[in-house]
Specification:
Layout: H1 2-51, E1 60-62, H2 69-86, E2 89-94, H3 105-116, E3 126-132, E4 137-142, H4 144-147, H5 152-168, H6 172-190
Parallel strand pairs: 1-2, 2-3
Antiparallel strand pairs: 3-4
Helix pairs in contact: 2-6, 5-6
Length: 192
């Protein structure tokens, strides 16, 4: 009888230890599975956005909701007036972090510029300003007709002196206005 109870106690102790180990290890498995699932969903969302870009609804397409409707309308009016003056098309797109990874803003903005066909056919005179508040990044893409007019150094200076200072203060609308006005002024001085 002593052997049976000793075996029973040894077996019970083994199950108890196994139960404790499973209890301690299980939450980390669940967390990994959730992270993996979130990653798959996020990757799927990004691919869906890439593969089926929504059509632009104006010159300003705010997928990050950083502008009010009134601000979007004003940005569109500045861009429309400049397009009527110099035939150059400028589009603004803000991109939520769920739609891009930190390092893919450049690829996505180029893709959007090509799919939306910003700029007049034959002139390739479009400009796309891509902003990701969440990733704290921005990018300006030019069509070939603009690349010959504005250097990379001039673009960098516009970003660093007009857009970024106000962005750092959380004033994305004012930073965008400053940046567009500086870009338009530079193009006007070149295209007199």
């Amino acid at each position: 009888m002593l052997d049976v109870s000793t075996n029973f106690m040894t077996l019970s102790f083994k199950y108890f230890v196994l139960f404790i180990l499973l209890f301690l290890v299980y939450p980390s498995f669940g967390q990994t599975d959730q992270n993996s699932l979130d990653s798959k969903i996020s990757g799927y969302s990004k691919k869906m956005f890439w593969d089926s870009l929504p059509n632009p609804k104006g010159w300003t397409n705010d997928y990050e909701n950083i502008y009010s409707a009134k601000e979007e309308s004003y940005l569109d009016s500045i861009i429309t007036a400049f397009k009527n003056e110099k035939t150059i098309e400028i589009a603004i797109v803000t991109i939520d972090t769920s739609l891009i990874s930190t390092d893919s803003l450049e690829d996505l903005t180029l893709h959007i510029a090509n799919v939306w066909k910003i700029g007049e056919k034959g002139k390739d005179n479009g400009i796309l300003i891509g902003i990701s508040k969440g990733h704290r990044k921005m990018r300006i893409e030019y069509g070939f007709g603009i690349e010959s007019l504005i250097s990379d150094d001039e673009t960098k200076e516009i970003i660093e002196t007009a857009f970024i200072p106000r962005f750092k203060e959380g004033q994305y609308y004012q930073g965008t206005i400053n940046g567009i006005n500086k870009l338009i002024d530079l193009l006007r001085s070149i295209l007199r």
